[in-house]
Design brief:
globular; about 160 residues; alpha+beta; Beta-Lactamase
Length: about 160
């Protein structure tokens, strides 16, 4: 069963994008992206023009779900970190606060040690952002981000 859809506000999105952009540079990686556990791309940076980010995001979420099943079989809570090594590309996958998935794709111009070090700091920053976002969404009396949308607005959207 997937998690409910995440509500994202512009302020938090910009903070997340800043962390992703910085991680790309500091880890000397090719691509960095964040995906929710349902496979929806949240943020991305790097050489993504020739990359099917939709498929990669979906497959990453499936990978996390599959290894979560293996973890349960082994009486583990989760395997929070995964690493896949290829001939030309490597992928470091990190579960962040059991909420989102951080993916770093890198080649021989970087190293696993550098990526892991930079990912740890990025995860700490992302956890702070997502905790604040959760508090913001769960604030009693806070209007829904969709509260100002009327039935007329929806009808107008679908009428030419």
């Amino acid at each position: 069963m997937g998690d409910p859809q995440m509500v994202m506000y512009e302020e938090e999105f910009n903070q997340i994008q800043t962390v992703v952009d910085r991680l790309l540079k500091e880890a000397n990686s090719k691509v960095v992206f964040i995906v929710d556990k349902n496979g929806q791309l949240i943020a991305a940076s790097g050489e993504i023009d020739n990359l099917d980010t939709t498929s990669l995001a979906s497959l990453t979420a499936g990978n996390i779900a599959a290894t979560g099943g293996m973890a349960k079989l082994l009486k583990e809570n989760e395997f929070a970190t995964q690493f896949h090594e290829g001939e030309n590309a490597n992928i470091h996958i990190q579960l962040v606060g059991n909420r989102v998935i951080l993916v770093v794709i890198f080649d021989s111009k970087s190293s696993l040690g550098l990526v892991r070090l930079r990912v740890k700091r990025a995860c700490d920053e992302l956890n702070v952002i997502f905790e604040a976002l959760l508090r913001k969404v769960n604030t009693p009396g806070r209007d829904s981000p969709f509260a100002e949308i009327t039935d007329e607005d929806i009808d107008n959207l679908f009428n030419d």
